[in-house]
Design brief:
- The protein is of the alpha+beta class and about 120 residues long.
- The protein has one helix at about 15-40; strands at about 5, 10-15, 50-55, 60-70, 75-80, 90-95, 100-105, 115-120.
- The chain is built from one helix and eight strands; from the N terminus they run E-E-H-E-E-E-E-E-E.
Length: about 120
């Protein structure tokens, strides 16, 4: 066959289709892995509490804020730690609600890492 090749089953295919098929398979495998990671959630926060971090400039530095969204069927008690505040802050989050906690005030750093550990109340 001209301009292509045959697979072991004898079906002619173009090299472009073979390359695209291989790339699609890699993307699908990576997507499946990311879905598996997402379903587990953060190992210490629990799958039904979502956390997000953001900072806000307050004139003398950045305030670090973490928002917890409780999708659990019960109230949760959470401890939020950051690389700027390893001792952490504790907060209660009622079921179906969201709470934001300031973990650090006046930081020179805008970006920070956070972890949330939550348990049923």
């Amino acid at each position: 066959m001209r301009g292509g090749y045959s697979d072991p089953m004898g079906h002619p295919r173009s090299p472009l289709l073979a390359t695209l098929g291989g790339a699609l398979l890699c993307v699908a495998a990576a997507r499946a892995q990311s879905l598996d990671d997402g379903e587990r959630g953060k190992p210490d926060a629990g799958p039904c509490v979502k956390s997000s971090a953001h900072s806000r400039y307050s004139g003398y530095g950045y305030d670090h804020l973490v928002t917890l969204e409780n999708g659990c069927k019960t109230d949760m008690h959470c401890r939020v730690t950051t690389n700027a505040n390893p001792k952490g802050v504790e907060i209660d989050v009622p079921k179906g609600e969201e709470r934001t906690v300031i973990t650090f005030r006046g930081s020179p750093a805008r970006e920070f890492d956070h972890d949330a550990e939550c348990k049923p109340r």
